[in-house]
Amino acid sequence: MIYLAVIGLEVHTELKTNTKIFCSCKNEFNLEPNINCCPVCVGMPGALPALNKKAVEYAIKAGLALNCEINTLTRWERKNYFYPDLPKAYQVSQAEAPVCLGGYMEIETQNGPKKIRINHIHLEEDAGKLIHSEYGGSLVDYNRGGVPLIEIVTEPDLSSADETLVFLENLRALLKYIGVSDCRMEQGSLRCDVNVSLRKEGEPLGIRTEMKNLASFKAVHRAITYEINRQTEILNSGGEIIQETRRWDDQKGRSYSMRAKEDAQDYRYFPETDLPPVKISSEFVRQVKETLPLLPKERAQKYVEEYNLPQYDAQILTSEITIADFFDECVALFDNPKMISNWIMTDVMRKIKEHQTEDIVLPINAKNFTKMLKLHQDNVINQPAAKTLFEHMWHQDSKTDPEQLIQKLNLVQISDEGELENILKEIIQNNPAAADDVRGGNKKAIAFFVGQVMKATKGKANPKTVNELIQKLL
Amino acid sequence: MHKKTLKEIIGLLEKKEVSSEEAVKSCLDNIEKNKHLNALNYVNADNAIKQAREIDARRARGERVGALAGAPLIIKDNICTEGIPTTCSSKMLQNFIPVYNATVVEKLLAEDAIILGKANMDEFAMGSSNLSSYTGPVRNPYNNDYVSGGSSGGSCASVSANLAYAALGSDTGGSIRQPASFCGAVGVKPTYGTVSRHGLIALSSSFDQIGPITKNVEDAAFMTQIISGYDERDNISYRGEYPSLEIDHEFSFKDKKIGVPKEFLDLLLDQDVKAITRKQLDLLSDEGAQIIEMSMKTLEYAIPVYYVLGCAEAASNLGRFDGIKYGYRSQDFEDLIDLYFKSRTQGFGKDVKLRILVGNFALSKGNFDAYFKKAQKVQTLIKQEFDQAFEKCDLIITPTTPTPAFKINLDQEDAQSRYICDVFTAPVNIAGNAAISVPAGASSKGLPIGLQIIAPSLGEKLMFDAAYAFERIRQ
Amino acid sequence: MITLDEIKKISKLSRIEFDDQELKEIQSEFRAILNTIDRLNELDTEGVEPTYRPPLDVEELREDIVKPSLDREKILQNAPEHEDGAFKAPTIVE
Ligand SMILES: [Mg+2]
Ligand SMILES: [Zn+2]
Question: Is B151 tagged catalytic?
């Protein structure tokens, strides 16, 4: 029996604010436990929350980028449960009136563009972290406690593991684009729970399971594939799916039912009266809108129109804000968008892929990168030398001026006719037969001499000059 | 000397007729003599004397000192005092020493007040008798067989027995006014949001309000002024103007409209309370006040609303006491869950546990709409009823409590009788406006009886003027 | 009428336990309280809005400016057990 997969996501993203959501402690990833803590974020008796304006602003920003409606009045609820990483035994979150409602993100699928609907985006506080003690027991660190999170809840509009991955990649790029989050999965600043159910064509939704502990996009993909198979097998053998939360074990490549705690589901949500509801005026929303950068689609369009780049190239360049920003910086310094684009599309992207990290880090800066391009354009260095220089700049030295580097690395193109003539003469002497072939009109033989000159000059000879000399001497 | 009022002692200190050290020592002596009252959980003796000497020295050097300079005060034991134990009269917090000061404490210290001690209270402020305290009941200074009331029993008994010149308490359903009434002190519940709750160990966040307990109305207004004000650390904090609470000594009840909820007078009242309330209303009438008996039908639902919302919030607020970060941790546990159960079961008293259960009942799946949401809606009705009443009158007057203080050893103490203590006070917390309890007379057994003057939200000025005038007329 | 089983369920949710004797006492007190709070049903609240705090304007919220945190010593000062700068709890079994 063929089933259709129905997938929905709850994506938690830590916001890149300076301070935590309810106190003025620094919001930073820190390995030293309980350094960024105060009575509020450790839940000390008597401490009260004071809401961070920036957190609300960032939630609105995310909402606008995801085509959401912004609630004019947003309210807070407490979600009650006991766990050591939750110092107050409740998480301040939003249920009835979240910051953003509705919305969607369009993704490309095999069957063309598809709108994945967003149910809502709400703000909440992150929990602390548990560390295993080498002496037994668990250690509790509240540095992360109270870091602002947005939870983006989608409608169950995704229908495969692949599609989910595309959605997540797009979402991550978008959130980084608008600057609200670093979206670092390995540091936990992006986390995702997945709901999966199956249904037959034309039939209502089946029972869903929720999967937790998905630490990477790869894990998300594997877990969904696993869950679809697991549910398919159960249904095919006449069984029933149990609504439950499952924990993904990435090492073992399978998920486990989390021990059902009787009261685990009764969070006793109720209004958080320590925080008043917050009015969001249309004027404030308008101001936030103004801080939004051009989103990837609009930016790609701009590249096509202004720089005459192919649609495909424009799309690649704008897929990650780090790259798009780098491109813009380069164009501002060196007026050859096509050349910049070509280099980024090939060499830069290749390097990025080689060192795949979650965050794109460019070890080169636009100033030196464009200087290198200019040296190449002006024939100071040839193509192979430019590639060598690029490698060197990327891996070893991105700070030194390329002009000095080419001296140091001895990469300057030899265009001096006298010097090249002497080299060529010697080669001709040693290869009389090939010389005759050239004289006889054999084009292949010309390439042989060019190659020999390049070899002798370690690739620095100006190919144009060499060609002219061959014509002249033979 | 300890019998002086706050303003009187401040006057003497200013004129250097008395030193702060003398004032503190006089109170300390009196604390020693009144140990049997069990009013204090902690006496900050050494620090208080040291601080008093410092203030005396500063004054001697002619340096500027604060408005409360050198005056020893008592703080309820649910208000965080840095470095001074704050236990909420619970086994759960027996060894708890806060690492920060509540905003109100900061404000008192900024005025150079001296924190003399921490007052006994009902455990986590849950109760109206001070019988639920882990450190035992507070005895009524007027008759030691009787309760002090609660939950700010220790604060009120302290003021009444002259252990200090004023005290801070907290009022969630009547916890300042009711014990003030039982102990013959003046007790104020300011408008919700006008005194920062930062540092007050929460019972029910929607209703908790810190307020002063003093020997007379003028001191009450003075203290209220000092502890009030916007606080960025409390998002509920009132952001508007805070008017001067300086007493208008010329205030007259002439043409003032005083509302009296008919239903309250009809309630089965203690004969003494009834008689005194009648007598005082007649007195006000003689002064030219217009007494308007009005029907306020929803007020009797304040107790159920208070129970549902108050317990629900308390259940959530007390979740943090889990034996991990601070507070009591049971010594014999098998695992984390067991640690939670044992620490909470052993650390909390019976009344606290019962309220947590009631709260979680009202919040749990299937009950939320029927109980919590319903109570929130009735809260709206109660607020509306007050709003409408204040269109017809300037102030509302009721007895503070339906009976004077009851005996500590109640033969049969059913839940119901203890809950009715708050029947006149809780509606004010539900609506969020201001009220004051002023001594109004004594029962046939010589126990104090208080009168409650309720003002509209932010109506403190009028409330204090009227209370002051009433106090003067009575004398 | 609240049953003993219901009370047990809620006490579990509350992380509090009672022996059988206590449970019976709690039940009778609970019933008394329920009698009181069930009186709310005497009032018609059709169309009545629940009470919420008066809202704040988003502009009135705290600015995103870092202030010093508390010394870790103080953070841990009241902890029943701590180790390596962290609060210590028994091992958490998932
Ligand atoms: Mg969440
Ligand atoms: Zn903090």
Answer: yes
* Whole-number pLDDT of residue B412: 54
pLDDT of B267 reads: 74
Pairing verdict, β B186-189 and B209-214: antiparallel
A408 belongs to a structural domain: no
DSSP state of A326: H
Residue with tokens 């799309």: A315
Catalytic residue of the set B76, B91, B107, B118: B76
B326 touches C at CB < 8 Å: yes
Residue found under tokens 């003399």? B116
- Which range is least confidently modeled, A47-56, A244-253, A411-420, B7-16? A411-420
**Same domain, residue pair A256 and A134:** yes
Residues from chain A that touch B365, judged by Cβ atoms under 8 A, are 265-266, 268
Query: pLDDT confidence of C93, banded at 50, 70, 90?
Result: low
Q: Do C55 and A279 touch (CB under 8 A)?
A: yes
Cα radius of gyration rounded to whole Å, chain B: 21
What values do phi and psi take at B169, rounded to 5? -130, -175
Element containing residue A351 per DSSP (H, E): helix A349-354
Q: Residue A353: CB partners within 8 Å, gap ≥ 6?
A: none
Interface of B with A in 200-229 (CB under 8 A): 200-202, 205-206
Give the number of other CB atoms < 10 A from CB of residue B408: 19
Which tens digit of pLDDT belongs to each residue from B373-400? Answer: 999 999 999 999 999 999 999 999 999 9
Calculated CA dihedral for residues B246, B247, B252, B253, nearest 10 degrees: 100
pLDDT for res A460: 79
Q: How many beta carbons lie within 10 A of that of residue B306, not counting itself?
A: 29
Backbone angles phi, psi at B433, to 5 degrees: -90, -170
Mutation test of the interface with chain A: which of B198, B324, B338, choosing the one with the most A Cβ atoms within 10 A?
B324
Q: Looking at residues B280-302, what average pLDDT do you find?
A: 96
Q: What is the CA radius of gyration of chain C?
A: 23
Q: Which of B174, B239, B223 is nearest to B435 (CA)?
A: B174
In the listed set A265, A286, A307, which residue is the last one of a domain according to the structure? A286
Residues contacting B411, CB < 8 A, separation 6+: none
Do C70 and A37 count as a contact with CB atoms less than 8 A apart? Answer: yes
Interface test with C, best of B197, B324, B331, B379 (most C CBs within 10 A): B324
The single-letter code of the amino acid at C53 is R
Q: Do A80 and B316 touch (CB under 8 A)?
A: yes
Nearest CB among A19, A36, A38 relative to C64 is that of: A19
The question of ipTM being above 0.90 is answered as yes
Whether residue B346 lies within 8 A of chain A, CB to CB, comes out as no
* Range among A94-108, A341-355, A414-428 with highest mean pLDDT value: A94-108
Q: Is B461 among the residues known to form the active site?
A: no
Name the active-site residue from B128, B129, B175, B196. Answer: B175
Give the integer Cα–Cα distance in Å for B256 and B252: 8
Our count of domains for chain C comes to 1
**Does one domain contain both A317 and A378?**
yes
CA of A150 to the centre of ligand 1 (A): 8
Q: What domains, with CATH codes, occur in chain B?
A: 1-474 (3.90.1300.10)
Question: Can you read off the two tokens belonging to residue A302?
Answer: 């701009």
Judge whether C34 lies within some domain. Answer: yes
Report whether the peptide linkage leading into residue B151 is cis, meaning its omega lies within 30 degrees of zero: yes
How many whole angstroms from A153 Cα to the centroid of ligand 1?
9
CB contact under 8 A, B312 and A270: yes
- Taking the Cβ of residue A88 and every Cβ of chain B, the question of whether any pair is shorter than 8 Å is answered with yes
What is the whole-number distance in angstroms between the Cα of residue A151 and the centre of ligand 1? Answer: 6
Q: Whole-angstrom Cα distance, residue A319 to residue A305?
A: 17
**Domain end: A370, A398, A426, which one?**
A398
The pLDDT-based confidence of A159 (bands split at 50, 70, 90) is very high
The CA distances from residue B332 to B325, B448, C20, in Å, are 17, 47, 21
